[in-house]
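for the writeup, i need someone to sanity check this before i put it in the appendix. the sequnce is what the collaborator sent (i think, or maybe the updated version? ugh). structure was predicted straight from it, no edits. if anything looks off just tell me and ill rerun, i have time this weekend
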Amino acid sequence: MLRLPLSLMISAAVLASSAFTASAQSRSVPIVRDAEIEALVSDYTTPILNAAGLGKQRIKTILVNSQSFNAFVDGRRIFINTGALLQSETPNEIIGVIAHETGHLAGGHQDRLREQLKQAKTMAVIGTLLGLGAGIAGAATRNSAIAGAGGGIAAGGGEIAMRSLLSYQRSEEAAADRSAINYLNKTGQSAKGMLVTFERFASALSISGTQVDAYRVSHPLPRERIANLSTLAQQSPYFEKKDPESLQERHDLARAKIAAYSGGMGSLQRIFRKNPRGLGARYGDAIATFLNGNARNAIPKIDALIKEQPKNPYFREMKGDILLKANNPAGAAAEFKQAAALDPRKSSLIRMSYGRALMLTGNKANMQAAITELKAGVTRDPEFSEGYGYLAQAYGQSGQMGLADLATADQHYYAGNINEAKIFATRAQKQLKSGSADWLRAQDIINTKTKKK
């Protein structure tokens, strides 16, 4: 079951399943966790990162629960909105976005942007000081013209600084576009998806009727980007190359899942209107049926998909979620176990779902296996705070209260609630063997310094 702070809730439907999970690991960005979509995006990203020489830098790709078409980078992380995946009709479109963001990382644009921000701030301060000086001089000489000019200088300093910074950002965006095409060529992929994306932006801008000052935006205008990249993209020998059918199918399944959780049946019907009986449409229908509270009707729909693709781990995972909703944790555990066995990536999320289902059976014979699976999941994915919550429940049911308090402390710690984490860590220490690994972990949490606001 998804746990999400009220401030981050996007839709009531999002609260229904552990397969598509939003996390509060970041207080400002609503993070989405899903084994199926993460595996797909990883397959999109890995070749591009290798082409850019970043394959060994452990760059993480993170899904953001937002319906807008957007992506951005921060440190060694690429953030991709679920809305970008939803609106991209082909894998190539989203791969082009990933290639562009990789261009920012490879080019060190973030570090240079920080330097530009410092310079812009300095320019703005100098302009303000000059304006104040002129204003004071005008007041001292009772010259209103000089005083008025001082105000203009102060305002102009900030405007010049802003335009200089925006000009720099536009140049970096153009550089990232060119780098993206190079990465796509190195990986034998088309840049046509990038042009499709820019066409989408241009159409949206045209429909809105918004008049944009080209000098007051951080990105080149869509039509400008198309003009700059069109010839370069079409010169590639891969320009007309299409995505493999298997990858397109996975892309459709991911879009179906996002649509079902964020937009419901209406969104699914719009996306798959050209192929209403395709695999993606039927997958989305099964999920939407489940989310609408009709688990009994969803089971035969997901069973039909499993029969069609018996080795698909994510169909099994979804059936496990449906069975949990139908209050059948034993059946859910069996499905999650099969999903974990079929999953080539050995997703920590699926293992934690398996462990949670075992715990929910209430059978003491299953409790140690539940703890083993949950511990394996959080060990591989330590920042997934919800996993520690499940582990705390399993420890509690098995009577290991010190470890339950420590797991709860970790849950709060990774959710960013440091004060609460310290409270539970202190409680845990009183019940744990002094000097043990678990006791030392509790001490680490207690010693964590909280950042001042």
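DSSP finds 19 helices and five strands in the chain. Strands lie at 21-23, 31-33, 60-64, 71-74, 77-81.
thx in advance!!
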